[in-house]
Amino acid sequence: MKSKTAAFLALLALCIPSFAASPLQIGLGIPRHCTFQLVSTNTPVIGLCLNLPGSENPSVAGLDLGLCSVADTFSGIRVNAIGLSDTCTGIAIGLVDHADTVNGIQIAPLAGTEHLTGIQIGLLAIGEDVRGLQAGIVAGANFGHSRFRGLQIGLLTGATDLTGTQIGLFNYGTELLRSNGNVTGLQIGLVNTTETLHGVQIGLANRTATLQGLQIGLVNVVSGSDWPVMPILRYAF
């Protein structure tokens, strides 16, 4: 059976004109372990890429479908159980999707990137430098040193340097376990915390070290103030 499949792919490859890029890729191997595919791992794909279960390519532009896709650069629509690339421009949907740089939409239960401009939706949505919309049960522009510009929605949201809005049960505008963080904008949640606030916190409990703005909640804490704790309403301008 395996020899028949190999013969079929070899015959199909002969039918594809020898250009710098291939209009079709069919991958029957496991990327980076056992590559068994229509065109070589050095050939870019412009057109259709079918991953049955997977393929590895230097670049894919077009429609990428299957179980596992690995590429240096991707542009178009990617729908795979696992999608991995250095850059992704377009729409990526899967169970696990990661790209170092995303320009577009990334939707997956496990969605990760270092740099995102666009939309990221997942159960766990993580990025280091994010501009746009990030939504998930956990939505974090990383939980180490990170920057976020836009709207975060989740049960737990986090960013070290936030300009925009956080909406969640627990909103962290600070680096976890460290005393640094800045929020310029709005935090709405059960618990809101940051180190420097330029804006508004609305929640059951609000905390910051430095306040330039407004806190509305049952407990409002400004740890750097002479009066660290105040109920209901607190402001400083």
Summary tags:
single chain; 237 residues; 1 helix
Q: Stretches where pLDDT falls below 50 for ≥5 residues?
A: 7-18
Helical segment count: 1
> What structural class results from the helix and strand content?
mainly beta
Tally of structural domains = 2
Rg from alpha-carbon coordinates = 23 Å
Q: SSE string, helix = H, strand = E?
A: HEEEEEEEEEEE
Topology (elements, then pairings):
Blueprint: H1 2-15, E1 22-27, E2 45-107, E3 110-121, E4 124-126, E5 129-140, E6 147-158, E7 161-173, E8 182-194, E9 196-208, E10 210-222, E11 229-236
Parallel strand pairs: 1-2, 2-3, 3-4, 3-5, 4-5, 5-6, 6-7, 7-8, 8-9, 9-10
Antiparallel strand pairs: 10-11
In a few lines, what is going on in this structure?
The chain has 237 residues and is mainly beta. The chain is built from 1 helix and 11 strands, in the order αβββββββββββ. Strands 1, 2, 3, 4, 5, 6, 7, 8, 9, 10 and 11 form an 11-stranded mixed beta sheet that branches.
